[in-house]
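Materials and Methods. Structural model of HTH luxR-type domain-containing protein. The 673-residue sequence of HTH luxR-type domain-containing protein from uncultured Chloroflexia bacterium was retrieved and submitted for structure prediction as follows.
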Amino acid sequence: MEQLLAAAPDIESLIAAAPGLVVLTTSREPLRLRREQIVDVPPLPVPNREQSSWPVADLVAMPGVALFVERALAADPTFAVQEENAGGIAELCRRLDGLPLALELAAAHVRLLDPAAMLARLERGLALPRWETLDLPPRQRTLPALLDWSLALLNAEEQAVFRRLGVFAGGFQVEAVAEVAATDELGVDAFDVLASLVDKHLVRALGGTEPRFALLATVQDYASRQLAAQSEMEQTRDRHLTHFLDLTEQAKRAELGPDEQRWLERLKPEQANLRLALDHAITTGQSDLEWRMVAALWFFLFSQGDLRWAMERLEATLARTHTPELNLLAQVLEGAGVLAEWLGDDQRAESRFKRGLAAAQEAGNTAFAAWLLGRLGSLAANRGDPEQARRLNADMLTLARTVNAQHAIALAFVNAARFAVGPSGTPAERERLQATLDEPLALLRDGGSRRHLAVLLAVRARMLAEFDVSAALLPLRESLEVTRGIAVAPIVGVVPWLAAVVLAERLPAERATRLLAGVAAEMARVAKGGGRSLIDIYGTPADRAALVRVAAMARATLGDEAFATATAAGGALSFGELVAEALAALDEVETRLALRDSGAALQAARQANRLSPREREVLAQVVAGHSNKEIAAALFVSPETVKTHVSSLLNKLGADNRQGLATIAVQRGLLEP
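The predicted structure was written out as tokens:
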């Protein structure tokens, strides 16, 4: 009916004259009548890409495959679906988008070409042979002929936009079409043209809060061939590269800021386009654009866990003879260093960081030079050289303060916190660091990196839990809430791990098992992506031993069957579900502590009554943060006497150290009159 749209008003007249009349017609676009009821006829369901292998019985039950097999048997009665050809059939039906005519056209040739051979032809850009059947019009005997028929229905501007859509991969948004298809030059509005192409079933509307569109793979191939035939391919690909380079650089500028996650989410659906744009820059020798693209893109790829592919691309760029601007060189070297570090290649990482540091220094970029000193400090910690790590981190902080480089200042504290809770950290170091964290947390909350904020809050909770778990719950909750809104793999995977360290011993067996299994699965996902162990970075042997104990006790409590069920449930959690599980565990611990403390007022009164007047004076001085020597001078007693009183207070109040003593005194009101 799309060829006879001018007759649509006649249909309306007929219906008006005969109210009981119903007209059923097929058309590639709406008739645009008020009483028209549109029923879309979608492609037939075909196997999805996520499943790599299909049992034959499941495969032939899918409508798209069933049609292909039915028509293949009509062409060749000996055709059979077997384990050997099932994968090829599944991929061919996917490649043909489940379009009934395309499946019939392919099935008609099974006597000459098996499914794998047909697929190979399509992948090489070759059409399937013509179907010489006499009971179909010529336009339906090949897929290109059918699309030629559809193309002829478009005006010149629509045809130009349609063929330029052939350069996209994996879909596109309206603004991308406006720039890449150059709709302003054509004198048309990008959204209006897309709406028309959607109505004509040449473009699919994918929906979402940010409208997104796509072509079926078969239509995409056709549009691409039309673009090449018009000699517009190179120019359109250049516009595609320019658009996605600009998009990636906008995301790069948002890195370490509050909008970082929003931009990472914006790039997610564009991964195929980003790779295509980078490939075009490389194959056409546009070296400056290549360097800008990899400098802007590497962190996004890292955040998606695509470490190895990103590493290969950055190293390939570094190996080329082109000499970029120094700041650009430093950025690419940083990316290569981070990826090498997470992949466990510390020697390569050190080389890249040092070269990047030299480039930043030569460029006079003090802030970035400070940042790279921090990278080298982190690397030294990985290599088991804590003294070098702390020295480089201190140098980073000093240099960053000279130019007020707030991101680098915050990172210095994140690194220091990592060192404090890592294998080389000590309780004394954690106690000293705890008092310094207000500055970096304020920087991070005020427009800083959300992922660094999440990690630093989790580390603070881990340190506070050594003295009083109640004090750890507030920063842990904030950390988990921040983590719930971000998805930077593998970095924030440390947050649920630290939550488990703080909470697991205080949870019922089933919930503790689910949480530990979820954390173990997340650590395994990081390792599978090539990332080094977060537990090795942020965990002490004591932490690991404690969680092993919790798991053993949970198994003993639950029994093998219930323990296995809870473990399977935890292991199946997505990262977002794992964070939600950790928050639920925190709620449970909070409730238990509240119940424990509901009778604490009487206990506190008893404890206060057990303290001598002199012990109460000493306790007040401890809460004020004074040393034994300072307390002795204030109370006119010897330091040894003060030491005895402090020891007595620790025993009476059940505290592990002076900070714990101060926390208990304030929380239980022991100094109130």
